[in-house]
């Protein structure tokens, strides 16, 4: 039995068979257990003596494969049977951990992995606590053994995840975090790197996504080792990309996160669904179904993005910074004084810009630092411009960003610049003005909008997007023909430091309008109806006589809208005209306005001459009444609105119930559905304000990450010669080999053509003569149709 227990006998029991028998009958095999335990102790003593004598793992007893195999087999055997012999093997886990900590460097790679697996087996069976062995497993990752590093790292991550699977144990988590945080602050680069990698992996898997872990990862950016700093900065920059990749992970944590997220709910009215399925022809119903599916997809995407941005668990570690201003200042000072390569400086610059934009910090020295690198030939200029855009927000004084803004305009947007540089410059200007519209001036905007007539698609698209943005932000900066139909002609950007204070619950107007539609209809009396009819008649008279009944402001507004309609209809003809006419129109804008006013007066005089004397008298009599009615109607509207607000507040007492909030949410979803359907042409057109371009708020812009690829939209990249050849060869794959027509006819398989059959066909003499006569007659008719001009006969006939 001794030989069978040791595993040396080929015909007797092996260790696996003995292990199964000991699990079934623990008391009957105690002598074999003591024997194998003694053999393990002797092997351990032998290896420890070798470590004390500073022997290498290549020489001595450890080079013997039989001794190494016996040690690893007995370690695994004892780890499997430890739960069945708790008293006899009480010291075995501590002995195994001490053996690994003292002689791990001198053990062969196979023995190290087997002994580590035995210790992991004991930890998984909760015989040993992970807190006691965490420092040991972190040390094992620094030995240079790739397999052992992978094994120890995966064990630490999975054990911490398993510990926090049902509920988070804050006491144990703090103890484990203190061990890793202390290792991260060490000067030893290998230990600090492994602790940082472990913390990042646990944060990515959302096991430790608290403030302490996030701040520890961010503070690693100030480590003395540049490798640790680069690793921490790279994790902070790529966190959102890692989050997208982690959605496909099949872990337990990801499944839990998927179970908590709700699917987007889309509300579509039944009328549009009925029309798409039952009304019209087959082709029209197919088109309606496709439009309906596109609308549903767009709404689901918007809801998914909004839920992702509003989800508190989706924050990057930069959101959890305790002192973001100090972090940005320290990292910027290190950027100014470091001698790292250009790629590392770009990483640091991106993190600073992301922190400034995310927390809306004021770092005034950062913008002159960026100004030195803003040149079209600069390396990675698109990433640098994206960082500059990210660092701009409404809390920064415009005077601090104005030199950088002018540098971008002067270096990128001019006639001698390349089309790629102009397109990128216009896109960057648009993004900066979206965050800080006070930087733009009227002359500069009108000059930039002139690039909308460029023949390059990237440049014209960028210029038009800038024009569309300022149609919503400040239409008065644009030329009259570029304003289009703004939703608010008197819109102005906020002054520096101006803040909109919310005085009501978001979406309360929808709830109030839905509740008070019937009440308003019932409460309207005869006087209100008469006033409404009078106002409608006034509006009809105003439409017929605009110049007399409307005020000066309303005249300007109406003329602006009409001119914009004309410009929109004749936009193609304007694009075909030269740039010189456009410039002359811009230069003579004031004179054109004066001419328009004078023309309006003249046209008004002509029209008045055609009107009869009775209408003139009637118009002169009611002129004062119409103006008085206009002012009284405005006052009545204001009083009615104030009364409605007070009544709604009195009825609800300023407190909304859960049902009201649910109804507000439903009304918002219905409004978004109507907007999406109207854009696809499936429902009636709504007003311009509901379907217009919505400018994101400052909070949304600060959370949003600027993608450098979007700044290069529609820019054609130059194709190298190898890529051109690859495209040519790819186009020739399905094409047949080139041959002449004669070769194709010779290789033709099949019967003769009709012309060949006519040549070989046997015909009688009368038929041949009639055919010749027909051909002569056809030639004669062709000559008569062609004319009497004689071109002569050919010499060779």
Description:
It is built from 40 helices and no strands. It is mainly alpha-helical. Among the domains are: about 5-240, Leucine-rich Repeat Variant (Alpha Horseshoe); about 270-305; about 325-490 and about 695-710. Keywords: Nucleus, Protein transport, Ribosome biogenesis, Transport. Required for 60S pre-ribosomal subunits export to the cytoplasm.
Sheet with the most strands, sense and barrel status: none
**Morphology:** extended
Predict the CATH topology of the domain at 3-240.
Answer: Leucine-rich Repeat Variant
The end-to-end span amounts to 120 Å
Tally the helices: what do you get? 40
What is the strand content?
Answer: under 5%
- The low-pLDDT segments are 1-11, 56-61, 242-264, 524-620
Given helix and strand content, the structural type is mainly alpha
CATH class of the domain at 3-240: Mainly Alpha
Summarize the amount of helix as a percent range: 55-70%
Number of strands: 0
Any idea what the radius of gyration is? 41 Å
CATH architecture of the domain at 3-240: Alpha Horseshoe
- Mean pLDDT value: 75
Region (Disordered): 1-24, 535-617, 733-797
Pfam families: SDA1_HEAT (PF08158)
Subcellular location: Nucleus, Nucleolus
Protein name: Protein SDA1
Please tag this protein with its features.
797 residues; mainly alpha; Leucine-rich Repeat Variant; 40 helices; SDA1_N; transport
Secondary structure: elements and pairs:
Elements lengths: L1 H5 L8 H10 L5 H23 L12 H17 L10 H12 L5 H16 L5 H11 L5 H18 L6 H15 L4 H16 L6 H9 L6 H12 L1 H7 L6 H9 L9 H9 L3 H29 L13 H14 L4 H18 L6 H6 L9 H10 L7 H15 L6 H17 L6 H8 L7 H17 L34 H16 L2 H19 L1 H4 L2 H18 L1 H6 L2 H9 L1 H22 L2 H40 L5 H22 L8 H4 L6 H6 L4 H4 L9 H11 L9 H6 L7 H7 L4 H22 L11
Helix pairs in contact: 2-4, 3-4, 4-6, 5-6, 6-8, 7-8, 9-10, 10-12, 12-18, 15-16, 16-33, 17-18, 18-20, 20-22, 21-22, 22-24
Pfam families: SDA1_HEAT
GO cellular component, one term: nucleolus
Keywords: Nucleus, Protein transport, Ribosome biogenesis, Transport
């Amino acid at each position: 039995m001794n030989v069978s227990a040791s595993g040396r006998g080929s015909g007797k029991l092996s260790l696996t068979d003995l292990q199964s028998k000991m699990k079934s009958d623990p008391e009957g095999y105690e002598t074999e257990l003591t024997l194998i335990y003694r053999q393990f102790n002797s092997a351990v003593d032998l290896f420890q003596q070798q470590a004390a004598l500073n022997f290498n793992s290549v020489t001595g007893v450890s080079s013997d494969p039989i001794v190494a195999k016996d040690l690893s087999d007995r370690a695994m055997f004892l780890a499997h049977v430890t739960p069945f012999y708790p008293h006899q093997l009480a010291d075995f886990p501590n002995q195994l951990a001490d053996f690994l900590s003292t002689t791990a460097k001198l053990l062969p790679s196979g023995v190290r992995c087997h002994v580590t697996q035995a210790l992991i087996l004991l930890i998984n069976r909760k015989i040993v606590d992970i807190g006691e062995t965490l420092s040991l497993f972190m040390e094992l990752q620094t030995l240079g053994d790739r397999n052992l590093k992978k094994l120890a790292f995966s064990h630490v991550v999975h054990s911490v995840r398993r510990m926090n699977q049902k509920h988070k144990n804050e006491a144990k988590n703090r103890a484990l975090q203190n061990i890793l945080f202390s290792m991260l602050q060490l000067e030893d680069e290998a230990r600090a790197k492994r602790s940082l990698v472990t913390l990042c992996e646990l944060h990515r898997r959302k096991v430790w996504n608290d403030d302490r872990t996030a701040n520890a990862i961010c503070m690693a950016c100030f480590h003395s080792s540049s490798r640790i700093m680069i690793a921490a900065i790279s994790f902070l920059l790529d966190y959102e990309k890692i989050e997208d990749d982690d959605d496909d992970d099949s872990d337990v944590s990801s499944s839990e996160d998927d179970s908590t997220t709700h699917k987007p709910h889309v509300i579509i009215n039944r009328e549009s669904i009925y029309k798409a399925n039952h009304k019209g022809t087959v082709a029209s119903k197919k088109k309606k179904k496709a439009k309906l599916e596109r609308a549903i997809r767009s709404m689901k995407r918007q809801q998914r993005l909004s839920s992702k941005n509003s989800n508190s668990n989706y924050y990057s570690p930069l959101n959890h910074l305790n002192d973001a201003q100090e972090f940005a200042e320290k990292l910027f000072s290190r950027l100014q004084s470091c001698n790292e390569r250009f790629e590392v400086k770009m990483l640091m610059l991106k993190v600073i810009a992301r922190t400034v934009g995310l927390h809306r910090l004021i770092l005034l020295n950062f913008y002159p630092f960026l100004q030195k690198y803003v040149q079209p030939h600069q390396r990675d200029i698109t990433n640098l411009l994206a960082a500059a855009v990210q660092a701009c927000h409404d809390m920064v004084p415009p005077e601090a960003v104005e030199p950088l803004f002018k540098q971008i305009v002067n270096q990128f947007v001019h006639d001698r610049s390349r089309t790629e540089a102009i397109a990128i410059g216009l896109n960057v200007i648009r993004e900066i003005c979206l965050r800080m519209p006070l930087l733009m001036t009227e002359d500069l905007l009108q000059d930039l909008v002139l690039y909308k007539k460029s023949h390059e698609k990237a440049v014209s698209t960028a210029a038009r997007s800038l024009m569309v943005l300022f149609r919503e932000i400040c239409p008065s900066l644009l030329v009259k023909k570029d304003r289009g139909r703004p939703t608010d002609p008197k819109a102005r950007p906020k002054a520096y430091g101006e803040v909109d204070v919310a005085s009501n619950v978001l979406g309360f107007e929808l709830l109030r309008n839905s509740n008070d539609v019937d009440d308003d209809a019932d409460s309207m009396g005869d006087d209100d109806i008469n006033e409404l009819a009078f106002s409608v008649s006034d509006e009809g008279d105003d439409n017929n006589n605009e110049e007399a009944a409307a005020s000066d402001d309303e005249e300007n507004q109406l003329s602006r809208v009409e001119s914009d309609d004309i410009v929109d209809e004749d936009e193609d003809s304007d694009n075909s005209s030269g740039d010189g006419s456009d410039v002359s129109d811009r230069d003579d804008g004031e004179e054109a306005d004066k001419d328009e006013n004078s023309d309006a007066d003249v046209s008004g005089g002509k029209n008045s001459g055609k009107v009869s004397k009775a209408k003139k008298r009637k118009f002169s009599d009611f002129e004062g009444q119409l103006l008085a009615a206009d002012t009284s109607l405005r006052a009545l509207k204001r009083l009615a609105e104030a009364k409605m607000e007070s009544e709604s507040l009195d009825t609800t007492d300023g407190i909304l119930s859960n049902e009201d909030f649910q109804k507000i949410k439903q009304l918002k979803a219905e409004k978004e559905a109507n907007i999406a359907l109207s854009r696809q042409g499936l429902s009636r057109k709504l007003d311009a304000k509901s379907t217009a371009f919505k400018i994101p708020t400052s909070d949304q812009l600060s959370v949003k990450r600027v993608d450098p690829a979007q700044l290069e939209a529609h820019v054609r990249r130059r194709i190298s010669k190898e890529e051109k050849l690859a495209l040519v060869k790819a186009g020739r794959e399905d094409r047949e080999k080139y041959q002449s027509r004669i070769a194709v006819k010779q290789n033709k398989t099949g019967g003769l053509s009709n012309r060949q059959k006519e040549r070989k066909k046997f015909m009688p003499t009368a038929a041949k003569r009639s055919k010749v006569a027909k051909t002569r007659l056809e030639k004669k008719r062709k000559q008569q149709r062609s004319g009497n001009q004689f071109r002569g006969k050919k010499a060779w006939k």
